[in-house]
Structures are given as structure tokens and as C-alpha cells.
Amino acid sequence: MKKKTRRMFDATSLLLAAVMVMLAGNGCKDPKEIARQQGETIEDKPQSKAPQEPVAENAAADEQGGNANEDKKSIIHKTTAVVVDAKKALENPDIEVVDGKIKGVDPFTQAGSAYVSMASRVSTLGMQQAIKAHKALNDRFPTYDEYMQMMKENRIEFAELPPYKMYGYDAESGNILVLQDNRKKAELYKKAGIPLD
User: Which helix (DSSP H) or strand (DSSP E) does residue 87 occupy?
Assistant: First the structure.
């Protein structure tokens, strides 16, 4: 029991240190001040996209990351309502389910990885509870269309992911997954001159 408590304390300490590194690297500036420096206002920025199914190969990921390529703007504190049908998306061999583990070789990439991993998990918790409630009432998980209707009715949005990742709903298991388009990731990394991990 002590070992488990100690491991949880160590993990919390690591996450806190990662957040502190992120804050130290960014400086603790007011978001409105940053927006003013970039020549825009926070109120004018669209915070989300309307839910939609992919039309072409990986269209939802392109839609989700559409604004991310403009001057490499941050995804922190942005939300999205784009969730694809995981079963259909996984038919593409370039798309896989990611495990959400914290990765990176230096403190900055580890902090970024920790933020994306934790934000995606935390932002989907409420919807996971709604899915469990639907299962308890109906003896089945909601279909993809029912799931999207639940999101729309309750105005649910998740933390935005990098442009090569997307949320996917698996109607068979009732899980909200994070999917990654490896081809798009490789293209973006190559364009930015970052070695692929």
C-alpha cells in the first residue's frame, strides 16, 4: 500500500513539475495579452467546430487541425466537438488508437505530451459517464448517431488535440478513443524538421 501511495505521489509530482516547466517556458502571461500581441481578440476566435462525420480519408482530423498550422498556434484551452466513428476511421491503415502514455526525451516534450494525454482523458470523463448511464438504461451502448446527438444536446466539447490526432467513439465497447493518423503526423513532423519518434 505504501509503494502504491508513493508511486501516485511521484506521478503527481512529475505532472506538477511538467506543468511548472510549461508555465516557466511560456511565462505567466494573461491570455488576452497574448491574443492582443497576435492581433486578435479571444471573443472573436472560434472555439469549436460543429460535429461531423469524415467525408474523405481523415477529413475530421484535417478539420480539427485546420487552424493549428496558422503560425503554429497553441491548442491549449481550445475545445472541439469533432468525434469520428472509430470503427470507420480504423479501416484506414494509417490510423491507430494511441495509448495516452506520456512520451518525450526532454522536459518540454514530456510536458506537452502530459498535457495532451491528461486533457484528453479528463475532458471525456463526463461523456463516458453518460455512455454508462445509457447502457444501464437500454442494455446497450449508444450508436454513433445517438452518441453525437447526446453531445450536441448537452453541448459537450473535448480538449483539442494536435492536428494529427482525433477523438473517436467505438459503439461496440462504448469507449471514447484517441486516434492518431501516422501518415499526417509524419508529414507534419517532416515539414517542421522534427525527427519522428
Answer: helix 86-89
pLDDT digits (tens, 9 = 90+) for 4-54: 555 555 666 665 555 554 544 544 445 555 556 655 444 444 444 444 443
Which residues are CB-neighbours of 98 under 8 A, at least 6 positions away?
165, 178, 179, 180
Print burial letters for 101-121: b (CB count within 10 Å at least 16), e (below 16).
ebeeeeeeebbbbbbbbbbbe
- Give the 3-state secondary structure percentages of the chain, helix then strand then coil, rounded to 5: 50, 10, 40
Instruction: Read off the pTM.
Output: 0.60
- Residue 48, number of CB atoms within 10 A of its CB: 15
